[in-house]
Design brief:
With 142 residues, this protein is mainly alpha-helical. Helices cover 62% and strands 0% of the residues.
């Protein structure tokens, strides 16, 4: 099943009155069905924040943006966690050749500091000899 079709199935489940839109009351019902609690005001605020055509309801397109945005947020959290593993304490919040060597060693890959300098240099966009988080994201996208 295609990803968009999966989103549509979930959307249709949430759209209990089958009007092609999700209203704040339907948001509350969905949240409560998974064990959460949300007030009517919070549901209305959430819908208003995401509602692209300002009709007070969520369209399928709005819903897809939420779901895909949540996936991106989760992915960004995973990237940040991975970055923090490589940027060992005392490295100034960056991946240094030494911190990269240590992490690769923990993963069973033996590299010299010079090898690690060369690896970093390929993605070191500002030329400071270390990788910040933005440079790390570029590296991980290759």
């Amino acid at each position: 099943m295609e990803k968009y079709e999966q989103y549509e199935r979930v959307f249709n489940y949430f759209d209990s009155n089958r009007d092609g839109k999700i209203c704040p009351a339907e948001v509350r019902h969905c949240v409560s069905s998974i064990g959460g609690v949300i007030t009517a005001e919070e549901a209305a605020a959430a819908v208003a924040l995401i509602d692209s055509d300002r009709d007070g309801l969520l369209s399928l397109e709005d819903f897809v943006k939420i779901v895909e945005g949540a996936g991106e947020e989760e992915m960004m959290g995973d990237l940040k966690a991975a970055f923090e593993l490589y940027a060992l304490q005392g490295s100034g919040g960056c991946i240094t050749p030494t911190s990269l060597k240590k992490m690769l060693s923990r993963l069973g890959e033996r590299r010299s500091v010079d090898d690690c300098k060369n690896m970093i240099a390929r993605f070191d966009l500002n030329g400071d000899g270390v990788l910040n988080f933005d440079e790390f994201k570029v590296m991980m996208s290759c």
